[in-house]
Amino acid sequence: MTQSVVVQVGQCGNQVGCRFWDLALREHAAVNKKGIYDEALSSFFRNVDTRSGDNGLDIYKGKICSLKARALLIDMEEGVVNEILQGPLRDVFDSKQLITDVSGSGNNWAVGHKIYGCQYRENIVEKLRKAAEHCDCLQCFFIIHSMGGGTGSGLGTFVLNLLEEEFPEVYRFVTSVYPSGEDDVITSPYNSVLAMKELNEHADCVLPIENESLFEIVNKIHQMISSGKLGSTVKQNSLVTSSTGGAKTLQEKPFDAMNNIVANLLLNLTSSARFEGSLNMDLNEISMNLVPFPRLHYLVSSLTPLYTLADVNVPSRRLDQMFSDAFSRDHQLIQADPKHSLYLACALLVRGNVQVSDLRRNIERLKPSLHFVSWNQEGWKTGLCSVPPVGHSHSLLALANNTCVKPTFIELKDRFMKLYKKKAHLHHYLQIDGMEQSCFSEAISSLSDLIEEYNELDATKGGPRIDPSRLKIAV
Amino acid sequence: MSIVTVQLGQCGNQIGHEVFSALCSDIHGTHGLCSKKENESYRDSCKERFFSEEESGVPAARAVLVDMEPKVISQTLSRAARSGLWKYNSHSHFCQKQGSGNNWANGHCVHGPRHKEAIMELVQKEAEKCERLGGFFTIMSMAGGTGSGLGAFVTQCLRDAFPTSFLLNHVVWPYGTGEVIVQNYNSVLTLSHLYHSSDALLVHENDVIHKICARLMNIKQISFRDVNRVIAHQLGSVFQPAHTAGGGSGYSRNPLGDLLEPLVPHPEFRLLGLRNIPQMAESSLAFSTFSWPGLLKHLRQILIAKAHMEEGIDWQVRPPQPGSSIPSTNKPLHFNTSIANLVILRGKDVHSVDLGSFQDPSLYTSWLNPQDAFNAWKTPRAFNKYEKSAALVSNSQFLLKPLDSIVGKAWNMFASKAYLHQYTKFGIQEEDFLDCFTTLEQVISSYTNL
Ligand SMILES: Nc1nc2c(ncn2[C@@H]2O[C@H](COP(=O)(O)OP(=O)(O)OP(=O)(O)O)[C@@H](O)[C@H]2O)c(=O)[nH]1
Ligand SMILES: Nc1nc2c(ncn2[C@@H]2O[C@H](COP(=O)(O)OP(=O)(O)OP(=O)(O)O)[C@@H](O)[C@H]2O)c(=O)[nH]1
Ligand SMILES: [Mg+2]
Ligand SMILES: [Mg+2]
After folding, report:
1. Are A185 and A50 in contact (CB under 8 A)?
2. A280 at the B interface (CB within 8 A)?
3. Per-residue pLDDT at B323
4. Are A143 and A160 spatial neighbours (Cβ–Cβ below 8 Å)?
5. B368 with B146: CB under 8 angstroms?
6. Quick one: which of A229, A178, A233, A169 has its CA closest to A204?
7. What is the CA radius of gyration of chain B?
8. pTM of the full structure
C-alpha cells in the first residue's frame, strides 16, 4: 500500500490538521480491533518503538507500539503548535516533525514566502526527506493551509514549490481555506491571489474550502439537533458532529466543529486508498479522472449525509437523499451552486453498504438535472469503499470539477482590485526582498486567465452540440 | 489440455475468483443428472483444464494474479483459501503498491516494461505445470489502467513468448454512464491493441449483466459480486467440458482451439459475444421446467434480434428473404448478421435436440459456408443446477453498436484534447491515439458491411 504525508502550515493548517489526526486515529481504532499495525494504518502513521529495549519484540510481531503521524507541522509562530504539543495528540508528533518561529508572518504572503521561505528552505527539505524516507511508496503530499494569512498562504505555497522540485513524482493535493467576504485580515485578498498563482502552477489538485460554508453547515447541524427534529436519534459520536469520545478532553475551540468537516473531507478522500472495497479509488485516480486540463484542477467538494443516523439496514429512500444532497447548494464546502453551472467531471466516493446498483440508479436519476460539458457527457468517476465512517452506515463525498468555482475567484479578484487600485498596504509587501510590483501583476493575470478559461467553458453551456465528424475509412 | 488464466487488475481478479468458484462448485454439485461415468469424466476434464492437483488435496487454480495495488489480490487470495474447495497457488501472484490510476499509458508504457520479466516468469511457471498447454485466457476490464493497459501489454508478451498457443481475452465493457471518466480512451487503446495480439476478445458488457441481475435474477441491491457471478456462470457454461460434433465419445481436449478456430475464420472479425439461457434466481429454478425447442427458439431470436437476454426480445425481427440478402444494405434494420456461431447444450436429452434453425444460411454473411459457420457442442451433464441450458458464443454484429458508441465518445473527447496531457506524460502521443481510432473505425466498418 502507499503512504501519504501531511504538511500543515500556519494557524489554520495546523488547527485543521490537528482535527484530522484526531479523527484519523479514531477511524482506525474503530476498524482495527486487534491492535495490529496494518497496511491501512501505515498510510498515514508510522509505528515506532519508543521504549528502550525491554519489549522490542512487540513491534516485530506487528503490534501497535507508538503511532507517529506522517506529518510536518510548520508555523512561524509557536502558539498553535505548542498547544497541540501539550494536548492529547502530543504523542503522535515528535520534535523532529516541527518547524516553528516566534513572530508569525503578520498576514503578509511575502514574509511567509520570501523571507521564511529562504530562511527555512534547508530545514524544510531535510524534514520532508526524512518523512519520505519512512515511506516505502510515497504517493501523495497533502498540504493544509489558509489562503488569507501570511504563513499558510506564503510559506505553504513555498513548500508546494519545494515539493515539486524535490519529489516531482509524488502527487500534491492542497486543501485551501479561502477567506470569506468579511474576513478580519485586511490583506487577505493580496495573500490569496498571490497564493493562487502558485496553486495554479504547482498543485495537482486543490480542494477549496470557504469558512462561510463550513459555518453554515455547522449551524445547520446544530439546528437539526437542538430543534429535536431528529431528537435522540442523532448519533452523538459520529465524526462530524462531535469531538467527544476521541482523544480530546479540553473544551471545544470555536473552529473545531468547522475543522472537523475539513478533516472528514480528507478522511473520505483517502478511505478507498486505505480500506478495501469492490471498486477501489486510489489517489492517483483523482487527478487522472477529474483534471481534463492541467490548470483546471480545482475540485468543489460536498459531504453527505451531514447527520446520519446509524441504521443497520439502509432504507433506499434515505440513501437516495444522500445523493441528492451532495448536489445541493447548501452542502458544498464553498459558496457555489454546481447544479446551475457546468460540470467538467464529477466523482462520487461512497463508503459503507452501498452497491453498484445504488450508484447507477442515482446517477441516472440526477443526470438530467446536471449540465455536463459536451465532450464529457458521461463524466462520472465512482468508488466503492466497504468501510463506512465511524458511527455511520454510509457516506458520500462528491468532488466536482465545475465552473461554479468561478464566482469565488471573481469575488477574490474584485476584492484584490479594490485594494490594488489604491495601492493600499502595497509597501508592506514591496519592501521585502524579492517582491516586485510584477509579482502582483503576474498573480492577478494568472487568476484572470483562470477565470477566462472557466468563462470559455461556460459559454459552451446550453449551446447546440455539434459532434466532430469521425474518421472515414475507405472501404 | 489445460488453460492458464491470467487475472489482471481489480475487475480481472474479482471475476477470475468467481469463475473458479463457479467451476468448482459445479463439479462438486450433486445435480449432474447424468451417469456416474459421464460425471466423473466431466469432472476430470474440468480439473485438467483449470486446476492442478496439489499435495494437500485442495486443487489449485491454473491462474496468475496480477494487479498494481495489493488490496484486491490479498482479498481474492484469502477468499479462495476460505472456500476450502480450491485455492490459488501461493506463489502465482504479482502486485505492487500503487495502481495504474486508471491511466492506460501508465499501465502499458510504465508498469508493463518494468514488470514484464516477473509477470512472464509466473506465467511460464504456471504453463510448465500443464502437461499439455491449450492456451491462455486473460480476464480484464478495459476502463481502468492496469487490466487494460498492462493487460494489453501482457497479451502482447504472451503472443511473443507462446506464438503458437491460443490466446483468448475476456474483456469487461464499462457501464455506459461511466465508472471511470477516461474509460472511452482506455477502451479504444485496449481494444485496438488486443486486436493485433489476441486471437479473440470475448466481451461482457456491465450494463447487460447488470440488467440480467435486476430482471432475471431479481436482485434488489446489485453488487459487483452479483454481476461477477452471472459472468462466471456464463463463462462456465462455455468452458466446462462438452463434446464437440466430430469429437467421438470423449470430452473435447482442446477447448480454446475448438472454440476459436471455427468462430474466428477471418482476422478482421475477432469480437465474440456470449448469451445463455435460461438464467434465473435459484429460488425460482425449482419451480420451472424447460423444453429444448422453447429454449432454442428464444436463443435464436436473441441472436438475430441482438437481444441481451430472454426478456424483452423483439420478435418482429426476421432474417432477410433469400435472394435479397445482397447487397447487405437492404437487410432489415435490426437484424444481426453473423460470421459464425457456437451453441453449447448441457443437460437432459441433448442428443435429440434439433439445431437446424441455427444453420439457416440467411443468418450468416454470404462469404462463408454455412456448414462451417455453425458449430454445436453437447453434454448430458447438467450445468450448475440447470436441468437444461444453452449457451451461445457469437461472432456477429452483437458488439457493433457498443463499439461505435465508445469510439464516438472517445473521439468527441479527443477533439477537445481533454485529458491528453495525462497520457503524453507516460509516452502515449496524439498520433498513437489516431492509429488506434483508425484500427477501430476499420473494425466498425467491417462489421457494419457484413
Ligand atoms: N476553517 C478555519 N479557518 C481558520 C482557522 N484559523 C484561521 N483560519 C482562517 O485563516 C485565515 C487566517 O490565516 P491563519 O491561518 O490564521 O494565518 P497564518 O497562516 O498562521 O499566517 P500568519 O498568522 O500571518 O503568520 C482567516 O481567513 C481565518 O478565518 C481554523 O482553525 N479553521
Ligand atoms: N463486472 C465487473 N466490473 C468491474 C469489477 N471491478 C471493476 N469493474 C469495472 O472495471 C472498470 C474499472 O477497472 P478496474 O478493473 O477497477 O481497474 P484496474 O485494472 O484495477 O486498473 P487501475 O485501478 O487503474 O490500476 C470499470 O468499468 C468497472 O465497472 C468487477 O468486479 N466486476
Ligand atoms: Mg498565524
Ligand atoms: Mg485497480
Report:
1. no
2. yes
3. 58
4. yes
5. no
6. A169
7. 21
8. 0.94
